[in-house]
Design a protein that fits this description.
This protein has helices at residues 2-13, 28-45, 81-94, and strands spanning 17-22, 50-55, 58-63, 66-70, 73-78, 98-103, 125-130, 136-140. The protein has 141 residues and is α+β, with helices and mostly antiparallel strands. The protein is flat. The N and C termini lie far apart (42 Å).
């Protein structure tokens, strides 16, 4: 059971990485504007459409002779979520952005964060930190 929970946590946390839309030399404000525009366009083309499902698991075998019962649960999901994400990624790619996967910096408190109005070259970016507003700052070599 513990290994199942650990594996689930690793999958859900994505091993400590985060994906950013990125374009060398782009201004942070322009990036934010482009992203908002692409999100709005994707939402218009693939609006939120919620459906309700009953998800019934039943008994799960953990080891031979050891079973647990997981009761059914009621879930609500957005059937357009995946399509909307694809449309958003395509829109950003059409605007010249790449997807950059970065790890969070090991000791964010020890890093001196300077204001970044313009994104540094992607090949120099090592990791990212966030400030209190959750805005990312990219640490370079």
């Amino acid at each position: 059971m513990r290994s199942f929970l650990f594996l689930t946590l690793v999958i859900l946390t994505g091993c400590g990485t985060r994906v950013f839309f990125y374009q060398d030399g782009q201004e942070q404000d322009v990036l934010a504007s482009d992203l908002a525009s692409c999100e709005a366009k994707a939402l218009k083309e693939a609006p939120v459409y919620l459906i309700e499902d009953d998800f019934e698991v039943g008994a799960i075998s953990l080891k031979p002779g050891k079973r647990i019962f997981v009761p059914s649960t009621h879930i609500t999901r957005d059937v357009n979520l995946g399509r909307r994400a694809r449309l958003e990624r395509q829109c950003m790619a059409d605007n010249g952005y790449i997807r950059l996967e970065l790890k969070r910096c090991e000791a964010p408190d020890a890093i001196n964060i300077e204001e970044q109005d313009v994104l540094p070259p992607a090949e120099r970016v090592l990791c990212y930190v966030t400030d209190t507003t959750r805005r990312p700052f990219f640490v370079t070599n």
